């Protein structure tokens, strides 16, 4: 059995139109990050097309683990300041509030 994963950068068409040079750099970084995780998680790159990558895995758990690791790596990556100027890529701050369930 083979598990397929297809990635896609949301809003990429607008980002390409906004600044093609920045997107060229961003997609290169994106692909390098994803490729770097494929070997670790037993995946194989099938193809890339623009901002999309298709990868195959022998095990569905490996595919999901790779996808989660990819998300974490992409979030942690130091993206160029110019890219972060676009509203689609602007940094977001999340605030978590602790929830407490009490039984009396």
Automatic annotation (TrEMBL):
PANTHER family linked: ADENYLATE CYCLASE, TERMINAL-DIFFERENTIATION SPECIFIC, ADENYLATE CYCLASE, TERMINAL-DIFFERENTIATION SPECIFIC-RELATED
InterPro entries membership: Adenylyl/Guanylyl_Cyclase_3/4 (IPR050697), Nucleotide_cyclase (IPR029787)
Protein name, entry field: Uncharacterized protein
